[in-house]
Sequence to fold (329 residues):
Amino acid sequence: MFGKIIGTGSCVPEHRVSNQELSGFLETNDAWIRERTGIGSRRVVDGERPEDLALAAAKNALSAARISAEELDMIVVSTLSSNHMLPSVSCLVQRGLGAKRAMCFDLNAACTGFLAAYNTMQAYINLGIVKTGLVVGAEGLSRITDWSDRSSCILFGDGAGAAVLRSDPEAEFATVMHADGEKGDALTCEFAYALEEGYPGTVLPVAPEEKKRRTLIRMNGQEVFRFAIRQVPACIQELLAQENRELDSVDWFLLHQANARIIEGAAKRLGAPIEKFPMNLAEYGNTSSASIPILLDELVRDGKIRRGQRLILAGFGGGLTWGATKVTF
Ligand code: UT7
Fold:
């Protein structure tokens, strides 16, 4: 038995930063950013913490699912940008919801994180350990973004999305997940404390400039772009072949919202109509593990995704990691 999505929710910060505003302190412009990425603005935390966004998204998902927090058996949060090492964001969400029965943990698979969390929940449901679970992708990327690096900061935004799953005899599930640690240097970010002089494990003192460089997101954009444009369609095809399904049996492809050109390229390589690849990155940018559940929630709330429809979710990013998961809504 697997889980069916019975409710979705999302939350983005109020504070909106336009491309125009970025061009006030960076050598960039709205036309370049839109043309190269499809991004028009992003939301940036202004006092909120990633766990606040996670909790608000979770509350919205529970209310859409019409269940009480006490019904949750497990909460899994995917994040790479939480304020806390301890307690985990999932425990903070549990506390905020009053989900006393739920076991909790966080995981990090970068922009593939929501898929990793969703798949983990499905595994627990399939083992009979969990009946009702909450998965959340939550990020405050703006705090680890290098706002002086025009090649990366224009991409990122903050937000959270959530889904409630409940075991259901009719639910279907299938996934393919991959990683290539050999290419991990293409997208990096180190913990600041680990570079402190005197911190156990720090071999050499790190100069302040070098420290700033390493503790903010560093990305080889072209390498990540090339990887994504090749691997995303390939893993979708792998999933379809595994399931013995035709491309046109899929109603929606919800891809990680990194760059409109990656999504358009994937649609083209697959030979699927671009209309089946909804995007909201013009508004929110790349919110890493939150991008897929935010998009899912918007489409469900707009009535575009309907019961019985077949979805493929596809994530890709740091690690490098990538994967595709089938969801029958
Ligand atoms: O979720 C994590 C996954 N991350 C991604 O998916 C990111 C994938 N990569 C990308 O989306 C693209 O590589 C970027 C949007 C980051 C960059 O676009 P690009 O088409 O690969 O540009 P580029 O790096 O080849 O740079 C082209 C030019 C360079 O100038 P020169 O050397 O040709 O004179 C850059 O310095 O554009 C310049 N440039 C900019 N110009 C204006 C780079 N960033 C900017 C900018 N505004 N913000």
